[in-house]
Amino acid sequence: MTLLATITVALLAGVIVAGVVALENLESSRARLVDEIDPGLIGAQTLTSALLNQETGVRGYLLTGDRRFLAPYPQGLAEQARAVGQLRDAGAQPGTVPGADLDAVLARAGEWQRLADRWTAPGAPPVGVAQVEQSKAYFDGVREVLDVQRAHYADARADARDGLDASASFLQWMLVVVAVLLIVLFGALYLGFRRAIARPLQKLASEVRAVTDDDLNREVSANGPRELVELGADVEDMRRRIVAELAELKRAQDELQRSNSDLEQFAYVASHDLQEPLRKVASFCQLLQRRYQGQLDERGDQYIDFAVDGARRMQALINDLLAFSRVGRKTGEMAEVDTAKLVGQAMRNVEAVVEETGATITHGELPVVHGETSLLTGVFQNLLSNALKFRGEDPPEVRIEAERDGDDWVFSVTDNGIGIEPEYADRIFAIFQRLHPKSAYPGTGIGLAMCRKIVEYHGGRIWLDTDPPAGHTRFRFTLPVHPGTSRAERTESESP
Asked: Where does the sequence pass through the membrane (predicted)?
């Protein structure tokens, strides 16, 4: 392909040189025709007209003897002088054919003019028929050389036109040849480009697409120009790094899954196994409290109260921990559920607190989602309980709303409670984390952690809105719009 391109370029250069020569010939022919032949032909016609005017005037005088007929003669002489100058300027110089023709015309015309000057001079004797015939004979000789001059100019003009046409035709053919050679050259360059760059680049792109389509074990290589080979090597290095990082990420993910599974199993076993001894402790403490209340001193009664309260709180913590560990382990049926009905059930579950606090709970239009009824009800109930628990001086006002954002429903629970500082936005979702002492607000501190686990189990996320309306607290969480995107269903689909 390189040899073909080289030959084509060489031919193209030769054709261009030939075209330049043809263009110069064309310009030379045009200049000769325009600058010499056409002006010379016009000058010859002017000279012929001037001599004919002279002959007309002399013949009229010779025939009539009236000098008034001589008027065209001096005018013709003046025109002759101008015509000769024009012919000299057009190239009729000595040593050239036009120059020789002009000299011949002037010589013959000079002989006739000398006779005419003698016959027409003032005081010259009258002339007769013989002089008229003699004048005609001399002027016929002038006509002959004028005809020769015109013929030479006509032939020169025809030759120049032929040369001009030939040069133009040759130049046109050169343009055609140049066009053909350019097409061949571009074709060769295109084929060379495809072979040297396009095909290797397409191969590299195909291998890269295969890698991006999850065929990460496919090696990427490239041939062709050095830059393309280096690009292929860079892509291969990147693929290997990605494979290594994904393997490390998979290992860490598996380790995290095992760790979470172990923690959940430990929490379940610990909470389940602790139930029986803790019930015994609580039962005996309550028995002591009922049987010996008032029989011990004040400090003894206080100790028994502390033991009973601690046992109850421990039972609550273990029950909460057990419920927390069961999320994702003991699951109910996933189905289409109306979140408005879930909110209604959650409101009934906290009805006593609502009546006690004079709270107002409202909600907008809520969607139907895919999930477990009991778990999602627990999310709304925990958020409502927090809103009612952490209230300010005014009666609680809680508003539940939902709006669609792409493939998610975004729920918001807004209240006019005491608020949460933004720096605690992550801490509040950790298990058993409290921002207030248990003496101020009852509870185990597991409610929001439970909400996060349930929401994530359904394929969503939950967070504290750090920029709520003034004087309000707002929690937001998402649930998928379409079924099949919750973690439970993904787990089921991935199971063998």
From this structure: 170-193
Please give the class, per CATH, of domain 332-494: alpha beta
pTM over 0.70: no
Cβ atoms of 55 and 80 closer than 8 Å? no
Tracing tokens 């990605």 back to the chain, one arrives at: 242
Q: Where are the domains of the chain?
A: 2-188, 219-326, 332-494
Burial class from Cβ neighbours inside 10 Å (0-12, 13-18, 19+) for residue 118 reads exposed
The CATH code of the domain at 219-326 is 1.10.287
* CA–CA separation, 261 and 328 (whole Å): 11
Instruction: Give pLDDT tens digits for 256-315.
Output: 777 767 666 766 666 566 666 767 777 777 777 777 777 777 777 777 777 776 676 666
Cβ pair 26, 168 in contact under 8 A: yes
